[in-house]
């Protein structure tokens, strides 16, 4: 039951993006690879995190955890996996595909992470499943939107300068997201609420923006 609870918000996020990709659906094989790359990302993040902890012992403060050991490592690895998945792939043939694949990779990672946390003998349970369904999984999806959006700008505006933003934008959002949650003080909950609203606003706006940029939009409109 806990595995199903850990998987449900991930499936909901994937389905939402699949519906939003309404002008030219991505091949099932590529979508599967996106989730699979996200699962691989989780394994690499775990291995890299263990290596860095062993080589560079440190105290786990909220700042260090948020900005380095979680957001820093996770977004860097996700960026690399997403780049190798789509940058030269012929299926990356409209701007919204950047967001679609960015979210599929991010939610693949979130799926693995969620199952680990929710089924943990000490940290897991139904309360953890609910908390992560409301906060962690949507957070990873929204970070994936930011990463994919700047990947799309990098490719379709032919400006490689957007690629650094494909890492730094989700990294900063992720770091602040975690930091505000880890502080667990009323004022930081206020900051978190503002950040959450801005992340959703940015995400929904950019999905709509790239939908409207689709080269397949006119063709689909004529057929319908």
Task: Give start-end ranges of low-pLDDT stretches.
Answer: none
Biggest sheet overview: none
Q: What's the rounded overall pLDDT mean?
A: 92
Tally the beta strands.
0
Family: Belongs to the protease PrsW family.
Keywords: Cell membrane, Hydrolase, Membrane, Protease, Transmembrane, Transmembrane helix
GO biological process, one term: proteolysis
Pfam family, one: PrsW-protease
Q: Features of this protein?
A:
mainly alpha, 224 residues, membrane, hydrolase, globular
SSE inventory with pairings:
Layout: H1 2-20, H2 28-55, H3 62-86, H4 96-118, H5 126-134, H6 136-156, H7 162-183, H8 186-212, H9 217-223
Q: What do these coordinates show?
A:
With 224 residues, the protein is mostly helical. It has one domain. It has nine helices and no strands. Helix 4 runs antiparallel to helix 6. The longest helix is centred in the N-terminal third of the chain and has 28 residues.
Short description:
The chain has 224 residues and is mostly helical. Helix content is 81%, strand content 0%. It contains 9 helices and no strands.
């Amino acid at each position: 039951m806990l595995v199903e609870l850990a998987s449900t918000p991930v499936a909901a996020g994937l389905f939402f993006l699949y519906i939003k990709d309404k002008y030219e659906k991505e091949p099932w094989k590529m979508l599967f690879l996106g989730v699979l790359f996200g699962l691989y990302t989780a394994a690499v993040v775990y291995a890299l995190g263990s290596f860095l902890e062993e080589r560079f012992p440190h105290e786990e403060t909220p700042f260090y955890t948020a900005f380095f050991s979680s957001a820093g490592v996770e977004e860097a690895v996700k960026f690399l996996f997403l780049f190798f998945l789509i940058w030269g792939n012929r299926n990356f043939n409209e701007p919204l595909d950047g967001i679609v694949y960015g979210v599929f990779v991010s939610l693949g990672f979130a799926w693995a992470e969620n199952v680990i946390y929710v089924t943990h003998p000490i940290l897991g349970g139904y309360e953890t499943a609910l908390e992560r369904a409301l906060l962690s999984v949507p957070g990873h999806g929204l970070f994936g939107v930011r990463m994919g959006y700047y990947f799309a700008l990098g490719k379709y505006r032919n400006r490689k300068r957007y690629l650094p933003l494909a890492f730094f934008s989700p990294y900063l959002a992720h770091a602040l997201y975690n930091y505000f949650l880890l502080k667990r003080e009323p004022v930081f909950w206020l900051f978190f609420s503002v950040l959450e609203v801005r992340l959703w606003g940015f995400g929904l706006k950019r999905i709509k923006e790239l939908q409207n940029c689709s080269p397949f939009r006119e063709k689909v409109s004529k057929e319908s």
